[in-house]
Amino acid sequence: QVRLVESGGGLVQPGGSLTLSCTASGFIFSFSAYDMSWYRQAPGKEREYVAVIRSAGGSINYADSVKGRFTISRDNAKKTVYLQMNNLKPEDTAVYYCNADRNGMRLNYWGQGTQVTVSS
To answer: What is the pLDDT of residue 57?
Structure first.
């Protein structure tokens, strides 16, 4: 059974920082073979893409809304993907989810989400 578990969410003030983690288990192939992404969903809004770190080569892409503020990384030995979030804004408030995919299959592997609230 595929399982993705996010952690690290919480309440931070505007301008603050937070690091999210997502640890995987139960993959058919090794963790390093999967593209790992972060998405977020705010109340009343569609789920939106945040960042991706791909398998082979480890190339990275960010949504325009988080470029320069967020950093995605992975530790394949720990089967974990991270999202370092800096200079957080109230509009970053959302439930953050990690996603795993392989070869563009859209496997629909999701974690349970972790709440990030940016407020003073």
So the answer is: 73
